[in-house]
Write a structure and sequence with these properties.
By secondary structure, the protein is α/β, with parallel strands linked by helices. Helix content is about 40%, strand content about 20%.
Length: about 325
């Protein structure tokens, strides 16, 4: 006899939700006390509108994930959210998430979702919660200190120091905005020469469009249309590389060099024993590109004879959502 589905009106104290809000996708999951994923749903992140539109899409994804797990959002112990931008965890607000539509100011993401989902919501920085998950459950378990570098729409970082997440004043870990070239390319943040201006997927797409407008040939946008995408997603970049697309190969090579310089600088500052590479592009490209980034770090390391261990994120594409669900445990 199949197990009976839980009553929608009854609290499920062992079930928690997690939402990973990215620049191209929203991933929602429901996990049990052992962090096993019982239900999931994925939607594209809106490209237009306001933060309220993004929140509505997040609520829809979470509702579908709960349904897939045989429960409702109201019955969950709570929902954790990993969001880009500067997060005020106590207030549940997110500011400066520039890779999301209309999100230049502050928005009460936590309270908005709590009202829509009917359960309490805890908000954290997307890369930090993913780093926390790797530290507790993934490849970071053997280290007391590490940095997680998540290579996707932007480039974000999460820091663990002596077993504790280092949050600073709410904006710690923004490794993508370390300057790797003085007076270099304009970044989406408005500054010049940031790592993200060379390695962030959104910046690489802007660069590709600019070069195409000047007559450069590439299959990137042809592949994007064939796959029904509105942006150059990780899968589009991956497919272009498989076709030996010259422009894609060039831009990814530039990204790897920028990542190597920026990550090495962070390691030089903190003398960290481990680096974890994740994010949409990091996970998509896998171990081979992690080794390329590790090689690109080497010339910039101050203590080159004793480099940090460099790992591919062990939790894969769901690491951000799993880390978000851990926020509920910490705030329960």
């Amino acid at each position: 006899m199949p197990a009976a589905k839980p009553s929608p009106s009854r609290s499920q104290p062992n079930l928690r939700g997690g939402i990973d809000l990215g620049g191209t996708k929203i991933e929602a999951i429901v996990v049990d006390a052992d962090h096993k994923v019982l239900g999931s749903a994925r939607y594209q992140t809106p490209t237009e509108g306001t933060p309220a539109d993004v929140a509505a899409q997040m609520a829809k994804a979470m509702g579908d994930a709960a349904k897939a797990a045989g429960t409702t959002t109201q019955a969950l112990l709570g929902v954790g959210v990993g969001s880009p931008g500067s997060v005020d965890a106590k207030a549940g607000t997110v500011a400066g998430a520039r890779n999301l539509p209309g999100w230049s100011g502050s928005f009460p993401l936590g309270p908005t979702l709590a009202e829509q989902l009917g359960t309490r919501v805890a908000v954290g920085n997307d890369v930090q919660v993913a780093t926390d998950a790797e530290f507790k459950l993934g490849v970071g378990k053997d280290y007391d200190s590490l940095i997680g570098v998540f290579w996707g729409t932007g480039v974000g970082g999460g820091i663990i120091l002596n077993g504790q997440a280092w949050l600073g004043r709410g904006g710690a870990g923004e490794i993508g905005h370390m300057v790797v070239k003085d007076g270099g390319r304009r970044c989406g943040c408005g500054n010049r020469g940031c790592m993200e201006a060379y390695a962030g997927r959104a910046s690489m797409e802007r660069r590709a469009r600019k070069l195409v407008s000047k007559g450069r040939h590439t299959k990137l946008f042809e592949i994007m249309e064939q796959r029904g995408r509105q942006r150059l997603t990780s899968s589009v970049w991956g497919r272009a590389l498989e076709h030996d697309d010259e422009l894609a190969t060039l831009l990814i090579a530039e990204a790897v060099e920028a990542l190597g310089a920026g990550i090495a600088s962070a390691v030089n500052l903190l003398d960290l024993p481990a680096v974890i590479i994740g994010g949409g592009l990091g996970v998509r490209f896998g171990e081979g590109y992690v080794r390329r980034i590790e090689k690109a770090m080497q010339p910039h390391l101050f203590v080159g004879h004793h480099p940090p261990d460099v790992h591919l994120a062990g939790l894969g594409d769901l690491g951000g959502a799993i880390g978000a669900a851990l926020k509920v445990i910490r705030t329960a």
